[in-house]
Structure formats: structure tokens, C-alpha cells
Amino acid sequence: MSEYQYYEFVALDQALTAKQQGELRAVSSRGRITSSSFVNDYQWGDLKADPAKWMERYFDAHLYLANWGTRRIMLRLPRAALAPETAEAFCVGESAGCWTTRTHVILDLRSEDEDGDEEGWDEEGRLAAIAPARAELAGGDRRLLYLAWLLCVQNRELGDDEPEPPVPAGLAKLSGPLRALADFLRLDPNLLDVAASVSRPLTEKEPSAAVLRSWVKGLPVADKDEVLLRVLRGEAGLLRSELLRRFHGVTDEEHSGAGRTAGDLLAAAEDRWAGRQQQIRKREAAEQKRREEAAAAAREQRLDKLARNPVRVWDQVDELIATKRPKDYDTAVTLLLDLQALAVREGEIFEFAQQMIRLRERHARKPSLIDRFDRARLD
Fold it and tell me: Which domain of life is it from (predicted)?
């Protein structure tokens, strides 16, 4: 299997300067570089830079994919939008980690599959589908962080007695970006369903224009000035999310997990998987029975039709064999099997056997036909 690696970085809050683009070009002569992105793929060689350093210096989101099974997502948020201690409470393993710079918190999420990654990917659409989850997190939605913790649980990076963090609302109905993230990181749907079983539905609604207007009027003048300055400086990427987070107020979610642990979640997920497998087997058995009954009914109809003129069917068999074509031999065998079934049904199997003896004698010098008779047990 040839190697394949795909790198994509995007700058969301602030465009790359010409100088920064030049620095990226110095690293890669082949990369596709714009004022907001870097994209490159490698079938030999590798990126001559540390993606983590690029995230610290240039970008807000990164996706990496290798066909030997590695997938990676990194997201950078301002410290004002995500407190470092909040991120650290959820990103607690090798599959989900985080670190801070002077100005930002960077999340690093990984998935590994030893069987490799041979499925077809529209790589350049993946990060675009996932990146909006960053704004959701900046707006106070902690579901992304919980998914990061759950990824560590799935990969057995936590002890069985590790307590579950606060369960955010809305786990049972993920947003499109969060669903894309969960799929990309191969998050077990059984584990996610178990975790979501105690998650409250999302009840937050978009505020009306009148309510927002009243709230804005009440903001301190200094805060309004800072907002305008950020817009003018081109730093408004997460501004809406931050303001809505401030508007709604972020409170700790009620821990409705009833003291669950990582081990509890894994055990419940295994039970759920076993239950689903049992349901699948039942559905498959029912479908198999339905197909068999339909086939039996269809065969009875064919036999009823054959019973009206079996002599004509024997003549058809002779005509098909006379062509000496393998395909016609197969059709003849199918007709003979129906004649055999009709003989069994009508209690005339002895007569059928006599007919087959004569048929074999007439065509004894056709080994491929006789072989078909033997394999179909036509005697």
C-alpha cells in the first residue's frame, strides 16, 4: 500500500499576512497557500514543519489524515473564549490533549486505526464541515469537549473508576459540525448513545432583536468600544459566539450522569452493542425467512405450471441440451430440478428417476453436462 498524507490548515479569526504566507511557502513549494489556508498532500515525503507550531503561530483549525489509519484535528481558541482549566478538565489522554500559549488554547484530537484508512475521502470538505464546531465551543457549548473526553474513554486511556465530567445538554442530537467531528474521530455510536442517555435536550432559543437591543444598551461603553476595535482590527471571527455566550451566561451543566464512571460507560456501551447485534440477527433471520417463504411460494407456482404439461418441459430440456452451450446446460438443469421437485410433490419420483437414467444414457459423452447433473444430484 502506497503512503498518503493530507494536511489542511485554516485561519478563521485573522487573515494571513503576506509575510506569513511567505514563511509558509519557504517550507513547502508545492502547498496550496491562500490568505486563509494551507493545503497539501504527500504520497512520499512529509511536511517539513511541526503542525503544532503552525497552529500556535498561524492557524485556527487543522485536519490531518494518513491512509495508515491516523486522523487528527486541532482547534485553536482565544483564552477569552475557552478557559484553559475548562479544556484541561476534558482533554485528559493521548487521544484528546490541549495546551496553552500566551493568547490561545489549542485542542488536539486524534484517532488511530491499525487496519488503515482505505475509504474514499473528500478531504478538502472535511475540515470545512468540522470547523464550525469551534464557534459553538466559543459560544459556551461544551459538547465538543465532552466528545474529546469520551474519545479517551473509548481508547481505554482512563481508569475504569475515572468519574464522568458534567454531561452537556444536546448530546442526543449533535449539530452537523459535531456529528462530522464524531464521525471523523471514529467515535463509537454505542458509547455516544449511552453517554447521551442522561443528557438534557437543548432548550436555548435564538433571542429576539428586541431582547438583544435591550441587552446591548446595557453593556458598558468600554466593552462596546472594545468590540468595535476588534472588528476594525479584523479579529471578529469568534466575536458573535463570545457575545452570545456572555448574553446567555455559561453555567456548569447539571451532572445528570448519576455518578457514572468511564468503566460504567464502556460496560453499558458493550451491552448496547450486544443488544443491537441481537436485533440485527433477528431482523436478518426474519428477512431470510421471508425470502425463503417467497421463494417457496414462487416455486410452487412454477410447479403448478409445470404440472399442466410436464412432457413439454422434458422436450424443452432436450432442446436446450441439443445446443451444446454451457449456458443452456445450466437452464436445462434448472428445469430438471423443478421437474424433480414436482415428482416429489406428486409422488412420482420413481418415474422421474427412470427418465433421468435414460437422459444420462443418451448424453453420456457430454462430460460437462453429466458433471452438472452430478453436482445438482439429478438421478
Answer: Bacteria
In sign, the C-alpha dihedral spanning 282, 287, 288, 290 is positive
d(CA 167, CA 181): 18
**Cell representation of residue 19:** 509575510
SS3 of the chain: CCCCEEEEEECCCCCCCHHHHHHHHHHCCCCEECCCEEEEEECCCCCCCCHHHHHHHCCCEEEEEECCCEEEEEEEEECCCCCHHHHHHHCCCCCEEEEECCCEEEEEEEEECCCCCCCCCCHHHHHHHHCHHHHHHHCCCCHHHHHHHHHHHHCCCCCCCCECCCCCCCCCCCCHHHHHHHHHCCCCHHHHHHHHCCCCCCCCCCCCHHHHHHHHHCCCHHHHHHHHHHHHCCCCCCHHHHHHHHHHCCCCCCCCCCCCEHHHHHHHHHHHHHHHHHHHHHHHHHHHHHHHHHHHHHHHHHHHHHHHCHHHHHHHHHHHHHCCCHHHHHHHHHHHHHHHHHHHHHCCHHHHHHHHHHHHHHCCCCHHHHHHHHHCCCC
Tell me the pLDDT of the chain (379 aa) as tens digits. Answer: 578 999 999 999 999 999 999 999 999 999 999 999 999 999 988 999 999 999 999 999 999 999 999 999 999 999 988 999 999 999 999 999 999 999 999 999 999 997 776 655 566 779 999 999 999 999 889 999 999 999 999 999 999 999 999 999 999 999 999 999 999 999 999 999 999 999 988 876 677 788 778 777 777 888 777 777 777 776 666 666 677 667 767 554 445 556 899 999 999 999 998 988 889 999 999 999 999 999 889 988 988 988 999 999 999 999 999 999 999 999 999 999 999 998 899 999 999 999 999 999 999 999 999 999 999 999 8
Closest listed residue to residue 304, CA positions, set 336, 271, 346: 346
Ordered by start, the domain boundaries in the chain are 5-276, 309-375
pTM of the prediction? 0.72
